[in-house]
Amino acid sequence: MNNIVTEQLTDAGRRIEHDSFAIVDAEAGPHAYQADEWQVVRRMIHATADFEFNGLTRFSPDAVSAGVQALQRGAAIVADVEMICVGLSKPRLDHFGVSTHQFIADEDVIAQAEAENSTRAVQAMRKAQQLNLLDGGIVAIGNAPTALLEVVRMVREAHLKPALVIGMPVGFVSAAESKALLSEMNTIPWIVIDGRKGGSTLVVAAIHALLALAEAQQSDKN
Question: What are the two backbone dihedrals, phi and then psi, of residue 163, each rounded to the nearest 5 degrees?
Fold first, then answer.
């Protein structure tokens, strides 16, 4: 499957992007991903020039189709940090009526974190749940392992049902562990990066790949 939807607005930009993806495909070599999964992984490699994501990235069954369907119906995206919201293409989100949300710097979130001696990331996920944004939404976590741990807890204890959890927190404390716990879940769709690697850039790349697939499916139907 070739690159489906481009964000480049000029012929020169499109040629560069096309050539970049061709290089990724050639240098990555054999892989065990399904065609739609590879669209996500190759865009992550394209965004970072790190070929280790060919192997480190894992998907629950039908995770990509769950994410694509959620975007097509305009599901909300709840991120752990503003960087993810800012990095996403607004025109492409607007095309499907998708809204983005993050609460990490809200005064009430900070106050509650201080009161409970927890983290802002935990309280931000709880606020998103109180606002009914997580059930049926896409949870996008690239920085805060405690946010992902809280989402896992809510899935287990409160039977939370996100449409998709993209769990890619980067770091040394609980990052690998939080992703391992997510990958053990069989009640919700997920995409994870094993180990310490992750970050907002990768989450944005993954969502852009899902948006491209959603647009391509829509074009095929028209």
Answer: -65, -35
Q: Find the catalytic residue in 31, 46, 101, 159.
A: 46
Residue type present at position 131: L
pLDDT value of position 86: 97
Count the Cβ atoms, other than its own, within 10 Å of residue 84: 26
Q: How far apart are CA 25 and CA 2, in angstroms?
A: 9
Question: Confidence band (pLDDT; 50, 70, 90) for 20?
Answer: confident
Rounded average pLDDT over 85-105? 96
Catalytic residue list contains 46: yes
- In whole angstroms, give the CA distance from residue 116 to residue 129: 17
Whole-Å CA distances, 122 to 8, 157, 181, 209? 37, 15, 16, 27
The answer to whether 211 touches 89, Cβ cutoff 8 Å, is yes
